[in-house]
Amino acid sequence: MYNYITLAMVKRYIGGAINTSDDDRLVDFIGWAARLVEWWKERRFDVRRETRVFNTPSAGGTLFGVYDASLLAGATNPVLRLDDDLLAIIELKNGDGIAIPSTDYVLEPANFYPKNRVRLRAGTVWLDSEDGPEQAIALTGLWGYHERYAEAWRAVDTVQVANVLIGDVLINITDAADYEVGQLLKLEDEFMLLEEIDAVGKKLTVERAVNGTSAAAHALATPISIYQTSGTISQVCMRLVKWRYVQKDADQFDHSYVMGSGVMTMPTSIPIDVARILGAHKVRL
Prior knowledge:
The chain folds into three domains: 1-43 and 231-285; 48-143, no CATH class; 153-227, Elongation Factor Tu (Ef-tu), domain 3 (Beta Barrel). It has five helices and 13 strands. The protein has helices at 7-14, 23-41, 69-76, 231-246, 272-280; strands at 48-54, 80-93, 105-108, 115-120, 137-143, 153-158, 170-172, 184-187, 190-198, 203-207, 223-227, 254-259, 262-267. 24% of the residues are buried.
């Protein structure tokens, strides 16, 4: 699972000499920090491929009709309001099961990420399925929170030596300098999690087809990109890991709470600066 920051990032952040015997503990703390931030904000800060379904947008209105001309377009062809953070649309299917061309809709807000609404252009309308409006619209997309998604993927390398076949877990690279275990990689439409680095042999060991993507073959010279988590979230996670690491021998550190989705382990307190940043962070629209 992608945890926003890497062990190497944490060690640079903490500074000084850290015994390698603490690596496993730090990795656990990294995962703990990522899940805590997700739980606190009720959203994810990576990018994943997923198909989500929505009811056909309804104009609503009253028996008296719409008399404000500025509201007429929204009443006759309302926007599709999304229930999660959208970064990109891969396919949008109308209620009749036919994909809507990307030229027939726009994402809103226009100038910011993430997106939370889909507005059809004039001439295209939302349709119910044969069974009605419930869950009639299917949106396959890339979901997650990132304020600067256009800059989120950093191209660092290309596939070397040989093609990457569907079953391969080794990727030949030019140089290992840009890579760290725990990074989220992208080759074309497939996401991979970096598990091991052979700097001498110039090879990466990866987990294929993560975050909802599918394994695919990738030709020689295919670009390799690394996902850059939002800077604020990276800093918050590293701050939490360092704080937890310093407190690692403290008694009665955690309390467990039973949630609807399982058991969440929460510390009795967290650094006040982290609490303020998370509390001030953008909330779901």
